[in-house]
Amino acid sequence: MVPKWKVEMDSFAPPHFLIFFFVVFTSINVFLVDCENLQDTCPTATTETQTTFFNGLPCKKPTDIAAHDFKNQDLTNAGSTINIYRSSMKIVTAVEFPGLNTLAISTGRTDIGVDGRVPLHYHPRATEMIYVTKGVVLAGFLDTQNQLFQTFLNVGDVFVIPKGLFHFCLNRGAEVATFLSVFNSQSPGLGSVTSSPSETTIDSLHKLIPLSASQVHDITNTNFTFPALDSIFS
Q1: Which pLDDT tens digit goes with each residue over 136-192?
Q2: Which residues contribute to the annotated binding site for oxalate?
Q3: Which of 23, 122, 133, 215 could be cross-linked to 211 through a Cys-Cys bond (beta carbons 3.0 to 4.6 Å apart)?
């Protein structure tokens, strides 16, 4: 007589079981923006001349790693807003901040003067999350279906911008606005719409999608006597 457990095991199809787990485990890496780190720390090794090129940055010699590799002060001070856009955007990657190497993360700071703006741009390798620390910011992004998502952000508000989507930020307050950014890649990249310094954000958006009169009004509206507006346009 064949044992019951033997019959149950024989009735299960091992190939299907193995195929399922193969698909699951090989798909995990698909969702990772950067490669997984293979050690606890890997601060970027700075070399005068790079002779070997690969995807990522080389690690420092373990015995040379120190606490200062994991500290950075590049975002301590506000950037200059004395320019045509009245804004400053600083992104700190693993190149400037050695301790970020292999951690799939980077950070940034943006300062926008009154009536200033961050022109339409995108980060091809990362999602961006912004946290407003000062002022009032109008932030928005355009998805692949030509929908425009925009909202007013006050101090303490958080806004997320999906990977690779065009986005912009405007200062709609009466003082300098500041927000901090976090990216889920140690090298998020930066791309922009070809434009002249005198071109407005609306002009840039018009290159990508047609805007209705109401959408233009919402972008240019500076009346803050009403609660912050959350709008989704299609």
Answers
A1: 999 999 998 888 899 999 999 999 999 999 999 999 899 999 999 999 999 999 998
A2: 123, 128
A3: 215
We report the CATH number of the domain holding residue 130 as: 2.60.120.10
- For residue 83, the enclosing domain spans 68-233
* Residues making up the binding site: 121, 123, 128, 167
**Three-state helix/strand/coil letters over the chain:** CCCHHHHHHHHCCHHHHHHHHHHHHHHHHHHCCCCCCCCCCCCECCCCCCCCCCCCCCECCHHHCCHHHHCCCCCCCCCCCCCCCCEEEEEECCCCCHHHCCCCCEEEEEEECCCCEEEEEECCCCCEEEEEEECCEEEEEECCCCCEEEEEECCCCEEEECCCCEEEEEECCCCCEEEEEEECCCCCCCEECCCCCCCCHHHHHHHHCCCCHHHHHHHHCCCCCCCCCEEEEC
| pTM of the full structure | 0.71
Binding site as annotated, residues for Mn(2+): 121, 123, 128, 167
